[in-house]
Design goal:
Elements (H helix, E strand, L loop, with lengths): L7 E5 L14 E5 L6 E8 L4 E6 L6 E8 L2 E9 L3 E4 L8 E8 L9 E5 L9 E6 L2 E5 L8 E9 L2 E8 L3 E4 L8 E9 L2 E2 L4 E5 L8 E5 L4 E4 L8 E8 L8 E5 L3 E4 L8 E9 L2 E2 L4 E5 L6 E7 L3 E6 L6 E8 L9 E7 L3 E4 L7 E9 L9 E6 L7 H18 L10 E5 L2 E4 L2 E8 L2 E6 L2 E4 H7 L1 H10 L1 H11 L12 E3 L13 E2 L2 E2 L16 E3 L11 E2 L13 E6 L2 E7 L14
Antiparallel strand pairs: 1-2, 3-4, 4-7, 5-6, 5-8, 8-9, 10-11, 11-14, 12-13, 12-15, 15-16, 15-17, 18-19, 19-22, 20-21, 20-23, 23-24, 23-25, 26-27, 27-30, 28-29, 28-31, 31-32, 33-34, 34-35, 35-36, 36-37, 38-41, 39-40, 42-43, 43-44
């Protein structure tokens, strides 16, 4: 019949059972019924405290607390006014039982409500098991009494976002951005109640290194990789491939290149590069395999309708790369490739220029890389030639030399023209040429000078000539390549071939394209034809090369042109290179 929250006065009168009267003074007291506390629970714990909260009781304005000890419940000396209380001085891992009573100004309710809580120790010994690009996983020692854990990521000063939950003392996530530092915290919990602070730590996942084999030798390999953003150092480890033997060597260094020595020739090794950051080194790393390889031996040459190169293969070689270049006493011509991925130990080189001194070199390779030492041999191509044949030999030699010199003086071929037998105009100079003792010589005063040396000696003046005679060069392009000054149509085509002298008398047209088999540099038993049709898709170009068309033929100036590939422009050179047909040379 009593209503909660109301105050009642209660009087008690005493009497004797045999007498039908009670005494009339009586004894009066006040009572106010209250409901018991509901939803009494722990909401936060630390290693030495718990925070207990409950739902407010209507008409209650104070609460008293008791905790259970060995001798039953013991009341705390103070009462609290708010529906929460933090209890300190507790032991982690021990379960505590509490009881709370609601009260008002008249009395406390006497039933009470029981709640259980356990302080939890902080997470200890956090260990990163895996930090590899976007994967981060770690583990730690189990916290006594903990039933689950929460892992949070800090967004700002006091702003945390839940990353993941775990019922075991470990976690893995892919939600972290690579190359950035992230502050995480781990909080132990019991039945959904977690620590308030937890343990913080920083992680910085980085991209994996991508090592490549750049060179190999008889007992060594060289590994390179691109720098990884955020990396402080790298750990390079190597072992024999195929298992069995563990790591046989390692080096720790901040550079992105390592040379590993004292290896066995012909043995396959696995090299792993691990990226280091604030969290140590990544656990997986990037790997590459390499096999030390020596150069070919006993490089031999013999004349047989050209030159036949042969050699003795080294142990473990599966392919070869052959290069050749002209030799000069005054100028080191660049090496030019003849073939790569060649499977045999003999190669036949034809269409070589008579009376020219060549150097040949052969590199051995395996499936991973080519060795860098190589086997080299120099020889002079001695062939009978007189009169017209000598003139052709000079023409071929000059064409070959000009192609090699394009690297030094872009456009040298465009300002070189044959004006007579063994006579050429280079810029504004007319030179008489001959081939003697494997060198291309020009007449200077009362003696002879190496032509390449003469060109390099006058490099600056020749470049100025190319710049100042741009109008004439473009006029020559329009005439020889038959480009229209005002626009072009789909019927025009520009063949791409090797650089030769502009000489209309040597054009040889085959099926709409021009044969470049007379380059004088060696055709390796076949000639290559490559034609570009303006305005249409192209075919016949080397792999990876995309032609760059002249967007405005009416622009009469020597512009900056570059060879375009799938990865963008490789390099830009001043000027254009032309073959005997006036064709654009994609190599320059």
């Amino acid at each position: 019949t009593f209503r909660p929250g109301k105050a009642y006065a209660v009087q008690v009168f005493s009497g004797i059972s045999d007498i039908p009267h009670f005494e009339t003074i009586g004894n009066e007291t006040r009572v106010s019924p209250l409901e018991t506390v509901k939803d009494f629970r722990p909401t936060a714990v630390t290693s030495s405290s718990v925070k207990m909260e409950w739902s407010p009781v209507q008409f209650a304005n104070k609460y008293k607390f008791e905790y259970q000890g060995r001798n039953g419940f013991t009341p705390l000396p103070d009462v609290c006014r708010a529906p929460m209380l933090e209890l300190t001085g507790l032991k982690s891992g021990r379960e505590y039982t509490f009881r709370v009573f609601a009260g008002n100004d008249v009395n406390f309710e006497t039933i009470g409500t029981i709640g259980i809580a356990m302080p939890l120790a902080e997470v200890q010994n956090i260990c990163l098991d895996d930090i590899h690009e976007d994967i981060v996983s770690c583990r730690w020692d189990p916290v006594p009494g903990a039933t689950d854990y929460t892992i949070d990521q800090q967004l700002s000063e006091n702003n945390w976002q839940l990353l993941t939950n775990s019922t075991e003392p470990k976690f893995q996530t892919r939600a972290l951005k690579v190359g950035q530092s992230h502050v995480l915290r781990i909080r132990a919990g019991r039945k959904g109640v977690f620590q308030t602070e937890g343990v913080r730590f920083e992680v910085k996942p980085l991209h994996t290194a991508s090592p490549v084999v750049t060179s190999i030798g008889t007992s060594w390999v060289e590994i390179n990789w691109k720098p990884v953003v955020g990396a402080t150092e790298y750990l390079t480890e190597w072992r024999e491939a195929g298992g069995g033997v563990g790591i046989i060597g390692s080096v720790r260094d901040p550079s992105t290149q390592v040379r590993i020595n004292d290896l066995m020739c012909g043995v396959e090794y696995e090299v792993t590069v691990r990226v280091g950051s604030i969290n140590g080194f990544d656990t997986r790393g990037g790997s590459v395999r390499a096999v030390p390889l020596g150069p070919p031996s006993d490089l031999r040459t013999e004349f047989q309708d050209g030159i036949v190169l042969s050699w003795t293969p080294p142990l473990g070689a599966t392919r070869y790369k052959v290069e050749m270049r002209l030799r000069s006493d005054k100028y080191d011509y660049p090496w030019q490739p003849v073939t790569e991925d060649y499977q045999q130990t003999k190669i036949h080189l034809k269409d070589l220029v008579p009376f020219v001194k060549y150097s040949f070199r052969v590199f051995a390779g395996n499936e991973y890389c080519y060795e860098t030492v190589g086997a080299e041999k120099t020889m002079e191509v001695v062939l009978e030639a007189t009169g017209a044949e000598m003139e052709k030999a000079v023409d071929k030699s000059v064409a070959l030399m000009l192609r090699a010199l394009e690297r030094e003086i872009p456009g040298i071929s465009m300002i070189t023209k044959k004006v007579g037998p063994n006579q050429y105009r280079i810029g504004d100079k007319i030179l008489s040429l001959t081939v003697l003792r494997g060198m291309i010589l020009c007449r200077v005063g009362g003696g002879y000078m190496d032509l390449a040396y003469w060109i390099i000696k006058h490099k600056d003046s020749l470049l100025r000539y190319i710049e100042t005679h741009a109008e004439e060069i473009w006029a020559g392009i329009d005439t020889v390549a038959k480009l229209k000054v005002e626009g072009h149509d789909d019927n025009n085509s520009i063949p791409l071939s090797t650089t030769q002298i502009i000489d209309d008398s040597r054009l040889s047209e085959t099926n709409g394209s021009y044969n470049n088999g007379q380059s004088g540099f060696g055709t390796f038993e076949r000639s290559r034809r490559s034609t570009v049709n303006l305005g249409r898709p192209t075919s016949g170009l080397p792999a990876g090369v995309v032609p760059m068309f002249l967007k405005s033929p009416s622009r009469r100036s020597v512009g900056d042109l570059g060879a375009s590939s799938r990865n963008g422009f490789d390099e830009t050179r001043r000027g254009l290179s032309f073959s005997t047909t006036g064709a654009l040379n994609y190599q320059n």
